[in-house]
Design goal:
Blueprint: H1 2-28, H2 42-49, H3 52-58, E1 64-67, H4 81-85, E2 97-101, E3 106-113, H5 126-141, E4 151-159, E5 167-179, E6 182-191, E7 202-211
């Protein structure tokens, strides 16, 4: 009986110590990483900042503005799609610029898609579009969850047109339903007109169901 108790107690104790100790080091960011993203396409950023839509968002005091890389621990940048795996020249050429009204659940974010993100037909791969929609819609819903964290329960995407390479695109997302540990978000991705003569090209529409697992509340103190 004593041996059985020891066998059960030691693993649980080790697990508890690991949970308590590891996040502390994680939050300190002791893993060596670049503090500043390189290969940012400054010309694209200037073009975005010159649009009426950007200026309107910046001037709204109810809207929070940040770049995507600021939304998660620095040491994970290299493993993150938009600022790591697919970031660089001719790939994701800017750190996605995000604007969100956390009270209403409205989000707008800007991306630039390089010509190395294409599929066999020469247009931007739909997998890239899916990643943007999943990430963006979830970001709109996170603030309305009890612990501000959750997972994608379902993601429906209706592809309308393929995004051309070297295009700047903008995601518009809005929370349609929020109840307890479940949030429903809808949104669409389109090209960003850089002049008044251009019209946006609708790329895809999407609906996301975001949920917070019950056990998340026990780890709300983790900064992940």
């Amino acid at each position: 009986m004593f041996r059985g108790t020891v066998r059960k107690t030691i693993p649980l104790l080790a697990f508890g110590i690991g949970i308590a100790a590891f996040p502390k080091e994680w939050r300190k960011g002791q893993f060596k990483t670049e503090k500043k993203l390189i290969h940012i396409n400054d010309q694209v950023i200037q073009q975005i900042e010159s649009t009426d839509e950007y200026k309107k968002l910046v001037s709204d005091p109810e809207i929070k503005h940040y770049t995507s890389s600021k939304a998660f621990p620095e040491q994970h940048h290299s493993n993150y799609v938009n600022t790591g795996l697919l970031f660089g020249p001719s790939l994701m050429e800017i750190d996605p610029m995000v604007f969100i009204n956390e009270k209403t659940g409205e989000l707008t974010s800007f991306y630039h898609l390089g010509d190395k993100l294409i599929s066999q037909d020469g247009q931007i791969h739909n997998g890239v579009v899916s990643t943007i929609l999943d990430e963006g819609l979830c970001s709109a819903g996170f603030p309305l969850l009890p612990s501000k964290k959750g997972v994608t329960a379902s993601l429906l995407i209706d592809f309308k047109n393929q995004a051309p390479p070297r295009s700047t695109v903008v995601l518009h997302a809005r929370v349609k339903e929020s109840k307890g540990r479940k949030v429903v978000i809808e949104g669409y991705l389109e090209t960003l007109p850089l002049s008044k003569k251009e019209s946006p090209l609708l790329i895809a529409e999407s609906k996301c169901v975001l949920v917070e697992p019950r056990w998340f509340k026990y780890f709300s103190w983790l900064q992940i």
